[in-house]
Amino acid sequence: MNACGKGKIIEEHENVPGFREHDVWLECQKCSPPKYRLDTSKGLRRWEIVALENQNK
Questions:
Q1: DSSP-derived secondary structure for 20-42
Q2: Rounded distance between C-alpha atoms, residue 54 and residue 51, angstroms
């Protein structure tokens, strides 16, 4: 579940011979940018939801 508890985090893996791809994204009108983003810099399985500092409230 995502930050507000109402949306979804979708994670998709494409592992076929010779091709590997990983995507992860937020599906929530409330939490999608500009409020939050997914930080995938730590690798495929260790992504985090990060609140953006410059939010319009």
A1: EEEEEEEE-TTTTTTTEEEE-TT
A2: 9
Contacts for 48-53: CB closer than 8 Å, 24+ residues apart: 49/2, 49/3, 49/9, 51/3
Whether this model's pTM surpasses 0.90: no
The whole-angstrom separation of Cα 6 and Cα 21 is 27
Which residues of the chain are modeled with pLDDT < 50? none
Closest C-alpha among 10, 30, 13, 9 to residue 22? 13
Taking the C-alpha atoms of residue 16 and residue 25, their distance in angstroms, rounded to an integer, is 21
Q: How far apart are CA 50 and CA 39, in angstroms?
A: 6
